[in-house]
Amino acid sequence: MAACCDYAPAGVCVSRALNRAHYHAKKTADVPMSFRPAQSSGDTPRTSATSHQVSELLKDAGLRPTRQRLALGELLFGAEDRHVTAEMLHEEVVSTQFSVSLATVYNTLRQFTEVGLLRAIAVDGARTYFDTNTSAHHHFLNERTGRLIDIPSDEMRIAGLPDAPKGMEIASVDVIVRVRDRRKV
């Protein structure tokens, strides 16, 4: 399979342009359905990904499958699409008795994001979530719990974007709709 970007390895599209769904479709095309994250809004785990499946996913993305990347990848990609912070993932991996530093978790999440396996979502200056659903979509943010919930791309329309500054192009548009519990009347 040929690369869709001049600078990407064969079979891997790491384009940061508006068409993230293209990358997600290419990356998941050869991944078995039992491993492939569903395009859903849930954060409920399902059957865990095997080390072999995660290893192949990492190799396809041009990453060496180290012990740390495999451990974190099994947690990230062996569940429904999910939104995690580095601290959440660190707590989860430590609970499995695997020893990994928080700095390694941050570095691995950054590397997974750079190759298009994850999408970084900056909620505020102090908190970044990492989303396993890399297709074009937006999010609700529950102000009370801090939980992110996917908004399917077909449920939201964005119109009237300004022209990008000279010599630049719009890479993506991320919308976060903040929600809270209804106030009792």
Specify the structural class.
alpha+beta
| Biggest β-sheet strands, sense, barrel | 3 strands, antiparallel
Mean pLDDT: 77
Distance between the termini: 59 Å
Outline = globular
Tally of DSSP helical segments: 5
Order of helices and strands: HHHEHHEEEEE
| Biggest β-sheet: strands ordered side by side in the sheet | 1-3-2
Low-pLDDT sequence parts: 1-47
Specify Rg, calculated over alpha carbons: 17 Å
- State the share of residues found in helices, binned by percent: 25-40%
- Give the beta-strand count: 6
Strand-residue fraction? 5-15%
Written overview of the protein:
This protein has 185 residues and is of the alpha+beta class. Helix content is 28%, strand content 14%. It contains five helices and six strands; from the N terminus they run αααβααβββββ. The protein has helices at residues 20-28, 51-60, 67-77, 86-94, 102-114; strands at residues 83-84, 119-124, 127-131, 138-142, 148-151, 176-179. Strands 1-3-2 form a three-stranded antiparallel sheet. Strand 2 and strand 3 form a beta hairpin. The longest helix is centred in the middle third of the chain and has 13 residues, at 102-114.
Task: Sum this structure up briefly.
The chain has 185 residues and is α+β, with helices and mostly antiparallel strands. It has helices at residues 20-28, 51-60, 67-77, 86-94, 102-114, and strands at 83-84, 119-124, 127-131, 138-142, 148-151, 176-179. It contains five helices and six strands, in the order αααβααβββββ.
